[in-house]
Specification:
Elements lengths: L21 E8 L15 E8 L8 E7 L4 H16 L4 E7 L12 H9 L9 E4 L2 E4 L6 H8 L5 E10 L2 E10 L8 E2 L2 E7 L11 E8 L6 E2 L7 E10 L27
Parallel strand pairs: 3-4
Antiparallel strand pairs: 1-2, 3-5, 5-6, 7-8, 8-13, 9-12, 10-11
Length: about 270
């Protein structure tokens, strides 16, 4: 009957001799229905994209959140997000970008935060907003364990390992990319210094502490090109940064008040 559903299991197994990273397109189609040629054939074919590989990594789902200590909705969104992340340790990471609105916004707003907002075409008043692995998920006020697990369970074929140390105001970071799948010539690497917890940017929304606050992009906000890499390879990078000048707490996030990243910093600890 029209719109009736059915399943077919093909009697012949699909044998794959090479389990290294490959992609395949599988075409399935119907030539006759009820022993008749279909009058409309546009919906009689399915194309399935299948990736085969003998190795996957554990995805660490990236949460990029745009919030502000002067935005009332940000507190509820951040509280909800962090309660979910705390229940599933080790499978996620986050960066929080302090925005410059409303009423002047967060004192830790910087030109790099503004650049990241422009990258996502995000207006300064469109907060709170959270992006999961670069895709807009909306406000984290509605974030759930189901959202986390649904996105985190997508198998990744790339791994980014970082290490480093801090001595005074000198920061060194080493990054190694391990890839099972090929890396294209347009792939970019982003490396940022974030402060695990800040306390001095308290304003008016009721939050008393803030987590993983962006302080500096070591690659700048445009990232750097990784270059083409074949499957099953790796590449390492080294970054050094000296936080300039002394700590300063701006009055707010207005352009006239924000930190000059070339001459000063806002790292509390």
């Amino acid at each position: 009957s029209s719109y009736e559903q059915f399943q077919i299991t093909h009697p012949k197994l699909w044998q794959i001799s090479d389990t290294r990273y490959t992609t395949h397109s599988v075409k399935s189609w119907i030539s006759r229905i009820n022993d008749q040629t279909p009058s409309l054939t546009a919906d009689d074919t399915l194309f399935s994209a299948i990736t085969v590989n003998d190795t996957t990594f554990t995805r660490k789902l990236l949460h990029e959140s745009f919030t502000s200590s002067t935005n009332m909705a940000s507190k509820a969104a951040n509280d909800t997000l962090h309660s979910v992340l705390a229940a599933f340790p080790g499978i996620s990471t986050e960066i929080n970008y302090p925005m410059n609105s409303p009423q002047g916004g967060d004192p830790y707003h910087t030109i790099e935060v503004a650049a990241r907002a422009r990258f996502y075409a995000l207006a300064s008043n469109a907060i709170p907003a959270t992006f999961l692995d670069g895709k807009l998920n909306g406000s984290s006020a509605n974030y759930s364990a189901q959202t986390l697990l649904q996105n985190q369970q997508v198998p990744p074929f790339y791994q980014i390992n970082s290490s480093g140390h801090v001595k005074g105001q000198h920061i060194e970071v080493q990054v190694k990319i391990i890839n099972e799948a090929p890396v294209s010539s347009t792939t970019r690497l982003y490396v940022a210094v974030c402060e695990k917890k800040t306390l001095k940017n308290v304003k008016t929304n009721g939050e008393m502490q803030f987590f993983h606050i962006l302080k500096k992009f070591l690659t700048d906000t445009s990232g750097i090109l990784v270059d083409t890499l074949p499957p099953d390879s790796e590449k390492s990078f080294q970054f050094n940064w000296d936080a300039p000048g002394s700590y300063r707490l701006p009055a707010d996030g207005r352009t006239a008040n924000i930190i000059n990243l070339n001459t000063e910093h806002s790292i509390e600890d």
